[in-house]
Design brief:
Layout lengths: L16 E4 L4 E4 L2 E6 L7 E5 L1 H6 L10
Antiparallel strand pairs: 1-2, 3-4
Length: about 60
Amino acid sequence: MPASNSLNTATGEPVLYGYCTWHCGYSADIRVINVDEQGSGPGGVQSACLPCREKYDLVPFSDRP
């Protein structure tokens, strides 16, 4: 099974690999933290890995009310 389709056995959610904005490196279990939307031109996304989410008390964008 390709890594992008593997499951996190603890939660049953897919494991995402990507760039962590907080420690400036690639990591597993990346979650989107902030979405910067702009009316014209490209926006941006800030993502964080689990250790950085715990260290900096970051709440994933999809988990916010």
